[in-house]
Amino acid sequence: MATNSQPLDFLWFIPSSGDGAYLGSDALSRPADPGYFREIAQAVDRLGYSGVLIPTGAACEESFILAADLAARTEKLKFLVAIRPGVASPSYYARLTSTLDRISNGRLLLNIVVGGSAQELAGDGIFLPHDERYLHAGEFFEVFNKLIETGSAHLDGKYIQAHHAELGLPPLQDPRPPIYFGGSSDAAIDFSAGIIDKYLTWGEPPAQVAEKIAKVRKAAAALGRQVTFGIRLHFIVRETDEEAWADAERLISKLDDATIAAAQDVFARNSDSVGQARMVALHNGRRDKLEVSPNLWAGVGLVRSGAGTALVGSAKTVAARLREYQDLGIDTVIASGYPHLEEAYRVSELLFPELGLAGPRNQIRSSFGKRQVFGGGGHGGNVRVASGS
């Protein structure tokens, strides 16, 4: 069913493990810096994005703490923050969730992260096999959701024991903040069907996304539920298609074959993620066939784990590709680009008008009605042109 009559909900990304201008290189790289994360958050709050995804992992700043800092420095921005079952108890996560939702004035979104690197999971004390992690997560959210929605829960399960657990203060959002989730395996989809509000997919070709959406819809419908859908993508949007493709090549211009091979070896050895395997299969570590679908470029996934594809092109071209995903049922985009501060501006200024999105909030009036033509920023100000000329 076509859904593109409604504007997309557009979120950005906080690169909490660091940022840069070239993949696979330390040239023009930016370290993980709380001040830089605040710059990005304040920019995207003003530029019209509805929220930001804060990633989770051993290499990232802790997402709940970072979100609390950014919430105090922004006005409307929402924060998609990770709950990782097994890292802490459902009761503790319920307290974190309630507090962050209350202090942010209801701007919290929850992102379930069950899988990832088996090596990292082992470091967190999680040793369950792939499918069993989702059985554990099911018990975790049985306790978590009862606590966050009613204030009390009790379970004596196979994986989770929570005896007469209580939550003193409810979240601001009633009954709880929305729950997002991404997972491509059958076990992940079965787990998600009875719990989540929004299913997220990485940026696969439209036919593969359509197949996944159909499976999730069927699983949710079997439980009498409906879910909505989002997509996680990088963006290289420029004024022309040619310029965009040139910048895609520039992004990997300092990336050598040894670095690609090392990254792909890590993915193969450390991850049992079906979604990661699907990302790798789009390029198989080869840099000569990276356009895997019209304007969908897999170059990011040569070295980046997780989301590895970007939409590349002019604003009109990229908007057309996004409408194809909307027609499948996608209503939310979680976007990023390198470096994240500059690309947040490009996407807002170039792509948002093509998508019917409002763009910058609270813009201050810059003239008394005459059109302003940028004059270079000199002391004489801008060139004033009569309206309509």
Automatic annotation (TrEMBL):
<protein>
    <recommendedName>
        <fullName>Alkanesulfonate monooxygenase</fullName>
        <ecNumber>1.14.14.5</ecNumber>
    </recommendedName>
</protein>
<dbReference type="InterPro" id="IPR036661">
    <property type="entry name" value="Luciferase-like_sf"/>
</dbReference>
<keyword id="KW-0285">Flavoprotein</keyword>
<keyword id="KW-0503">Monooxygenase</keyword>
<dbReference type="InterPro" id="IPR011251">
    <property type="entry name" value="Luciferase-like_dom"/>
</dbReference>
<dbReference type="Pfam" id="PF00296">
    <property type="entry name" value="Bac_luciferase"/>
</dbReference>
<keyword id="KW-0560">Oxidoreductase</keyword>
<feature type="domain" description="Luciferase-like">
    <location>
        <begin position="10"/>
        <end position="331"/>
    </location>
</feature>
<keyword id="KW-0288">FMN</keyword>
<comment type="function">
    <text>Catalyzes the desulfonation of aliphatic sulfonates.</text>
</comment>
<comment type="similarity">
    <text>Belongs to the SsuD family.</text>
</comment>
<dbReference type="GO" id="GO:0046306">
    <property type="term" value="P:alkanesulfonate catabolic process"/>
</dbReference>
<dbReference type="InterPro" id="IPR019911">
    <property type="entry name" value="Alkanesulphonate_mOase_FMN-dep"/>
</dbReference>
<dbReference type="InterPro" id="IPR050172">
    <property type="entry name" value="SsuD_RutA_monooxygenase"/>
</dbReference>
<dbReference type="GO" id="GO:0008726">
    <property type="term" value="F:alkanesulfonate monooxygenase activity"/>
</dbReference>
